[in-house]
Specification:
4 strands, alpha+beta, Alpha-Beta Plaits, 4-stranded antiparallel sheet
Length: about 100
C-alpha cells in the first residue's frame, strides 16, 4: 500500500543536519527505497514528502523511527492512491454516492 510520509524537521535539528551536509537523509532514503521524495519548506520548517510502498502496516515503525531518532522530526503517515487505485475504488465511491449523497 502506498503511503505519503511527511517528515517535518524542527529548525534546530534541521540546521544541525544542514551544517553536517544532510548526510543522514541519503542514508535513511537508501535504506527505505521510496518511490519518490520531494523536499519543501512547509510551515517554516524543512519538510520531506516521501512516497513509499509498504506491504504491511508493521513496516511503519521501521520507516518513521530513523526520522524521529536521527532528526528529531515529526512524522505523519497518510495512505495514498495511484490513478489505478482510484479506478479500482470507483465502484465503492459510486455506491457511497447512491447511499449518502443528498
Amino acid at each position: 500500500m502506498l503511503f505519503l510520509i511527511k517528515v517535518s524537521m524542527p529548525v534546530e535539528s534541521g540546521n544541525a543536519a544542514a551544517k553536517g551536509g544532510f548526510k543522514i537523509i541519503p542514508q535513511i532514503l537508501e535504506e527505505q527505497k521510496p518511490e519518490a521524495v520531494y523536499f519543501v519548506a512547509e510551515n517554516g520548517v524543512r519538510t520531506a514528502l516521501i512516497f513509499i510502498d509498504m506491504k504491511d502496516a508493521s513496516q511503519l515503525p521501521a520507516i518513521v523511527e530513523p526520522w524521529f531518532l536521527g532528526l528529531n522530526a515529526s512524522v505523519e503517515a497518510t495512505p495514498a492512491m495511484r490513478p489505478e487505485d482510484l479506478q479500482k475504488a470507483g465502484p465503492a465511491i459510486k455506491q457511497a454516492v447512491k447511499r449518502y449523497a443528498r
